[in-house]
Every structure is written in C-alpha cells, then in structure tokens.
Write a structure and sequence with these properties.
The complex is a heterodimer.
Chain A: H1 3-12, H2 16-25, E1 30-31, H3 32-36, H4 43-55, E2 59-64, E3 67-72, H5 74-112
Chain B: E1 5-11, H1 15-23, H2 25-31, E2 37-38, E3 45-46, E4 53-60, E5 63-78, E6 82-90, E7 98-111, E8 114-122, H3 136-146
Antiparallel strand pairs in B: 1-8, 2-4, 3-4, 4-5, 5-6, 6-7, 7-8
Chain lengths: 114, 147
C-alpha cells in the first residue's frame, strides 16, 4: 500500500459519520436509504460520505435490484491498523532501550551520591 | 481501530529522570529508536519550552543511506509532568512525503520511585482535525470483531 493510499484511508476515517457508516456496514450490506436512517442528514450527504469511503477502498458498491448496496472492505482497514502496529513496536523497542538507559543513570547516581 | 497510538508503561525511575531522558540531547541520543537504529548526537537539538524545537535524525545501522529526520515544535511543556509536540517526520516507511502527528507524553508519579509514562501519538493525518479525537473507539467496537 502506498503512503498516499494510507493518507486517504486515514482521511476517510476522520469523520464520525463515516465511522458510524462503516460500523453499520460491519453488520451487513446496506442501501443508502438504510444507511441514512439513523442520521439527521440528507441522503445526498450520505452519498457524499459513501463516495469518500469508496475512494479510500473501504467500501465497494454494487447494484442489487434497483438499489445501490454498499459492502465493507476490511482489507484496507487492516492495512491501516498494521501500519499503526509498526509504530507501536517502534516505541516498545525504544522503551526497552530507555529502560536499560535509566538503569545505568540510576546506577551512576547511586554510585556518586553518599 | 484508532488513528492514534496509546501506550502506557511503567519505568523503574523517578519522574525527573524519565523526563530528563526525553529533554536532554545527550540522553535522547543514547536510547531513542528501535534496536538497529541510531540517533547521531550531533543531529539532536532540544529546547523544551513552548514554541521550542525538538529536532533529530534517525539512521538505520544496516542501511547507511537511510535518514529519518524528525522536526517538532513543543506546544505544551510542564517540567517533569508533560510534553506535547507537533511532529513532522520525513522518510517514514510506508508514507510518501511528510508524516504529521501530535505526540503527547505524560509523566505520572507512581510512588516507590517509579514513573508511569502515558504516550499518545496521532492522529496520523494532516486532514484529521480535533473533533475526531473522541468517540473513535466506540464506533469501532463492532469493526474490531471483524479485523
């Protein structure tokens, strides 16, 4: 995954309505009408959110009968999570070293103080 | 699923010592970065005041051409208690261009000469504003089950 894609995904996840839409789609596919139900916003506004999610690859849309149905795509979301996990490992390893460093500092201190 | 990292860790050292390890350039150069990475001392510049800079370059021992310059500005500083900095990093694996994120470090006295460090880093996107920092976890509880 390119960095640009990752930025697009994080950008898409930035909006609370879009996160709620994804949470709803985690339960199963839904049409725009179904997705709009819990929100006090118009269907065109929901459609705009869906376009952002689709551009980020977080959902796909397909026609079922006369309605356009949205499906959650979990893979890009997982890649974003994996990327964050790398950052967490970065800190965990740094803090292992910080632990050792602090031990040395304390020993030096205790060695020089009465 | 979140777009920020939260880490809580206890260090067996008093708060002043842990805090100094972050703001003293000589010390930061000795521990920062995962195993196999280095921070050359001459690249480190730390001015732990609001508006002051935190700058250094991370290198990777196995890849002499690799440079990961980090440039941050402190936005909140309370000695031995709190450091907040807006960071910009270049050369981060997986990211084209500049990665921006806010780093928040809280130093809590745990008693018995121990310190609890609370780290928050994120959100990891320049477009993501303050309004998104709350309510993230609850929205994703259902998604977590999927991932």
């Amino acid at each position: 995954m390119s960095g640009d894609q990752l930025s697009v995904i994080f950008g898409a996840l930035a909006d609370p309505t879009r996160r709620a839409i994804l949470a709803r789609l985690a339960e199963g596919d839904a049409t725009v009408t179904e997705l709009a139900e819990p929100f006090a916003i118009s269907m065109p506004a929901i459609s705009r959110h869906l376009k952002v999610l689709q551009r980020a690859g977080l959902i796909s849309r397909s026609r079922s009968g006369q309605w356009l149905s949205s499906t959650l795509e979990a893979a890009p979301l997982r890649e974003a999570t994996d990327w964050m996990e790398q950052y967490r490992r970065f800190w965990d390893e740094s803090f292992e070293r910080l632990d050792a460093h602090l031990r040395r500092v304390r020993q030096q201190r205790e060695g020089t103080e009465p | 699923m979140t777009n920020q990292i939260c880490i809580s860790r206890i260090f067996d050292a008093p708060r002043e010592l842990v805090y100094q390890a972050f703001v003293d350039p000589d010390q930061l150069a000795r521990w920062f970065g995962p195993v196999g990475a280095s921070v050359p001392r001459d690249t480190v510049e730390i001015d732990a005041r609001v508006g002051g800079r935190l700058r250094f370059v991370m290198t990777v021992d196995a890849d002499p051409g690799f440079r990961n310059p980090i440039d941050a500005v402190f936005t909140a500083v309370t000695e031995n208690e709190l450091l907040v900095a807006d960071m910009a990093a270049e050369g981060v694996p997986g990211v084209d261009g500049t990665l921006r994120a806010t780093l928040r470090l809280e130093f809590h006295d745990e008693g018995d000469g121990k310190t609890r460090l609370e780290l928050r880093q994120g959100p990891f996107d320049p477009e993501i504003g303050d309004q998104t920092r709350t309510g993230w976890e609850s929205s994703f509880t259902k998604l977590d089950a999927l991932l």
